[in-house]
């Protein structure tokens, strides 16, 4: 378990302590919730970026096979096989 020390203004620390907001369990739950929310925000942000990209051209399976064959031939030529 890790111990973390934070610096807060005295009045804020006192008010938070009196309200029971500085318990380890409450802070742990709050941090976990913040992490979940950030991950969700990052996911939605990535989805927004992906939807903003134009759809790529559709490539036939034959064209894909030709590209793979060309890449392999080039790789063999470079390696000397």
How many domains in all? 1
* Shape assignment: elongated
Radius of gyration: 27 Å
Query: With helices defined by DSSP (H or I, 4 residues minimum), what is the helix count?
Result: 3
> Could you say which structural class the secondary elements and strand pairing correspond to?
mainly alpha
Number of strands: 0
Q: Report the sheet-strand fraction.
A: under 5%
Describe what you observe in this structure:
The protein is 70% helix and 0% strand. It has helices at 10-18, 24-52, 61-79. It has 81 residues and is mostly helical.
Summarize this, please?
The protein is mostly helical. It has helices spanning 10-18, 24-52, 61-79. The protein has one domain (10-79).
What features would you highlight for this structure?
elongated; 3 helices; single chain
Chain-wise SSE layout:
Blueprint: H1 10-18, H2 24-52, H3 61-79
């Amino acid at each position: 378990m890790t111990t973390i020390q934070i610096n807060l203004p005295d009045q804020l620390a006192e008010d938070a302590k009196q309200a029971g907001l500085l318990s380890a369990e409450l802070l742990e739950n709050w941090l976990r919730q913040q992490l979940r929310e950030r991950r969700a925000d990052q996911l939605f942000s990535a989805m927004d970026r992906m939807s903003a990209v134009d759809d790529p051209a559709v490539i036939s399976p034959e064209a894909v096979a030709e590209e793979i064959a060309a890449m392999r031939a080039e790789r063999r030529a470079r390696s000397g096989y």
